[in-house]
Specification:
180 residues, Rossmann fold, five-stranded parallel sheet, two-stranded antiparallel ribbon, 7 strands
Length: 180
């Protein structure tokens, strides 16, 4: 397999797509102020482990792209992505993911056939249609599943990237770097 980069959508792949909002206020002990609690998202640690393995052991670049663009949402996403060993910072507010993908491929000297893409929704279909390894979570839209060569056994937010990395490691589909 000649995969050199993985691009993954965020909401619905690295999260379960749910967003938990709170209209309550809380007390900030450190600052002594009342503030809005806001938005909560859940990420799976297996995805972070997979990102680290991919980066450190295989050299495969990892990119995360999302159409989401609300400041509170972006702050949560950027905070989580900091610890996921990404080749590049998360790209947020991307409404035309195919144009973005082609630009990333050009910048990094990648052929689209050298890219794996993980998506779950209509906005991802353009990218899934042109990459070398289109993939999705088990609970992706039926239309998306029909475009994919690999469907994870896991739902979005439950370690889809980890599942993909585990499959590739298990079947030795990516060569690990020799650290010696």
């Amino acid at each position: 397999m000649a995969i050199k980069a993985i691009v993954t959508d965020l909401d619905g792949v690295l999260t379960d797509g749910g967003m938990y909002y709170s209209a309550k206020t809380g007390w900030d002990v450190a600052n002594g102020e009342t503030h809005e609690i806001g938005l909560i998202k859940k990420f799976h640690t297996r995805d972070a482990s997979a990102a680290r393995w991919l980066s450190e052991k295989t050299g495969v670049k990892l990119f995360v792209v999302t159409a989401g663009e609300h400041a509170r949402n972006n702050a949560i996403n950027a905070s989580r992505m900091e610890v996921m060993y990404l080749a590049e910072p998360i790209s947020q507010g991307v409404m035309d993911k195919l144009v973005w993908l082609k630009n990333v491929a050009h910048i990094y000297g990648l052929e689209l056939s050298e890219i794996a893409y993980i998506g779950d929704d209509i906005i991802d279909i353009g990218c899934l249609s042109v990459v070398g390894f289109p993939s999705c979570p088990a609970d992706a839209l039926t239309t998306v599943i029909g475009k994919c060569d690999w469907v994870s056994s896991r739902n979005g937010g439950y370690g889809v990237l980890g599942d993909l990395a585990d499959q590739w490691r298990r079947y030795k589909l990516l060569e690990e770097k020799n650290d010696g």
